[in-house]
Write a structure and sequence with these properties.
By secondary structure, this protein is of the alpha+beta class. The chain is about 30% helix and about 30% strand. It has a domain of about 130 residues: Alpha-Beta Complex (Ribosomal Protein L22, Chain A), CATH 3.90.470.
Length: about 240
């Protein structure tokens, strides 16, 4: 059974590569992507974007059995990338996220998918952000955490919510208080509620993972049959990342 028949595939890579690799990535990009890269004010951000998109094209090309530079991408109304209409027969869905020099990619067959990653760090106004963007249930769970666990709890919640709205294709236009996710460190990653629908009947499944020490990630995949979903493969330079 392939990875796509039983779950989703998550690939992790680093973006802090040598100049030669940056140039090789740039050669794979479309003219639109090169133009977007040129608009970044800082060279660091330009490099990260270039390498992340070049790697995405390599991963897509390998799965479509075609040259990476020939892969055509389109973007949804809210900016979610997808394969152009000509590749509809492949039924390949994907999503990408990066934080600092870490990039993560998620792939599935026939099911919408979203992924997010963040470096866990102390944010001065984290409590205010949580009060504004978390649901009431999430905010109460966040406040109940010991202060030393709040940074991880905050980014557990943030990446899980972000992965879900990216799977929907709505981005931050989706009301963030309309659904609940678990966030306490050590507890299972779950969608607890979407509207009035309990998480175990919502048609989506959530998993968390740690791509590198100090980072937390989340992936959400459409699960219309409401069966258990697990991540079938997580690759990172021939090493497995922890998935829960």
């Amino acid at each position: 059974m392939s990875a796509y028949e039983c779950g989703c595939e998550v690939v992790v890579t680093r973006l802090d590569v040598a100049s030669e690799a940056v140039r090789a990535s740039a050669a794979l990009l479309s003219e639109e992507e090169r133009d977007r890269a040129r608009r970044f004010a800082f060279e660091r951000d330009r490099r990260r974007f270039t390498v992340a998109r070049g790697r995405l094209r390599q991963l897509l090309g390998a799965r479509l059995d075609m040259p990476p530079g020939s892969v055509e991408l389109v973007y949804g109304e809210r900016g979610k990338p997808a394969l152009a209409r000509g590749y509809a027969g492949s039924d390949l869905r994907f999503n990408v996220s990066h934080s600092d020099d870490v990039a993560v990619y998620a792939f599935s067959s026939g099911r919408e998918i979203g992924i997010d990653v963040e470096a866990v760090r102390v944010i001065r106004d984290a409590d205010d952000i949580a009060a504004r963007f978390f649901s009431r249930c999430e905010y109460e769970s966040y406040l109940a955490l010991d202060a030393r666990h709040r940074p991880l709890g905050f980014f557990n919640c943030w990446t899980r919510k972000e992965a879900f709205i990216k799977a929907l294709g709505d981005g931050l236009y989706h009301p963030l208080d309309s659904f609940d996710v678990s966030l306490a460190p050590g507890e299972p990653a779950e969608i607890l509620r979407i509207g009035h629908i309990p998480g175990d009947h919502c048609g989506w499944r959530l998993r968390s993972f740690s791509p590198f020490p100090g980072y937390v990630g989340a992936v959400v995949i459409e699960n219309p049959m409401r069966q258990g979903v697990y991540i079938a493969s997580v690759s990172r330079s021939d090493c497995l990342a922890a998935v829960s």
